[in-house]
Amino acid sequence: MTRHDEILETAERLIRREGFNAVSYRDIAAKVGIKSASLHYHFPAKEDLGVAVVSRYHEKFHAALMAEAKDLPGPKDKLAAFIDLHRRALHDDELLCLCAVLGAEAGGLPPSVVTAVKAFFTANIDWLSDVYSAMNVNGPARRAKASAAALEGALMTAMVNQDKDVFEATADWIMTPGA
To answer: What is the Cα–Cα distance from 139 to 103, expressed in whole angstroms?
Structure first.
């Protein structure tokens, strides 16, 4: 792993745990084992780091989704794969979705970071809309928006309440689009 990737990985984990505004260059540098000035070499401003972290997260999430959904037989299986990516973050890593954390902080983020977060959510909603269309769900775009929002909210609620059943109940609702 390159130093650049190590910085992005560390920044992502810290932001997912503490939030963008709570994490400093000093925090990231200490975890990586470099001086803060070295971090500025890679990312001159925190805004640059934020955009890079979100872009990398978006690419990784999309690549994982495409890899998991690629050989699945039907749209319902693809929908389950989307949910499973979120489930693993909750169960395995005990982390929120990066973009959910940043979405909650949107009012205090640089505009370019907000734009990157919007791109992540838009891509997920578009993908879900295509899945719901293939499932012949009425109003697939609206259902996709509601499902994406519900899933992100379920992650937050499950983490805060230390109750993973909140997530599972939401996942069940998403998997039954007629409900």
So the answer is: 25
